Amino acid sequence: MITLNIIPDELKNEIKLNDHYVFYKKVMSLILFMAIFFSAVLLTAKIILATQQSDTDQQNTIITKSSENYSKQINEINIQLKEIKSIQNNDINWTDFFLSMNDFIGNEIKISRLYAGKNDNSLRISGIAKSRNDLLAFKEKLEKSEKFSNINLPISSLLEKENINFEISATITSYDFK
């Protein structure tokens, strides 16, 4: 079989141009279709991201408001803790005070009244001593202690020999009675 090409050259060129035109038309249609498809995908993605961004912003707002509330509560608790610490720093452990006073007093001294003033650091002790020597030993223990100074025992308390009513005053120099 023999192929004869008897079509004039002008027509051949026109057919080639027409074939090129159809080819380019298909390519352009494909490109246009792909552009529309990707535009739709990107638009959908943009809408989804905008929705998620809005949800995230709302959650951030809620979290921020709740964290502000927690911050206020934490600040209030910190203020209360500072006040408690201040109170504890200025507090006297009275149990230790009375236990240490018990070491000074012994069995020979009976205390009827004990006053310890924190504001003026004063100490006044009233009671009954079995003997003058017991009272002097009690005064000496107070004087040897670093916690008290200016121990004052009136001489009138030393005039009696037994069952002596006394009142001693002193200055508290340290409240660390441990």
Automatic annotation (TrEMBL):
Coiled-coil zones: none
UniProt KW keywords: Membrane, Transmembrane, Transmembrane helix
Keyword flag Transmembrane: yes
Transmembrane segments: 27-49
InterPro entries the UniProt entry points to: Extracell_DNA_Util/SecSys_Comp, PilN
Pfam families linked: PilN (PF05137)
Listed PANTHER family: DNA UTILIZATION PROTEIN HOFN
Name of this chain's protein: Fimbrial assembly family protein
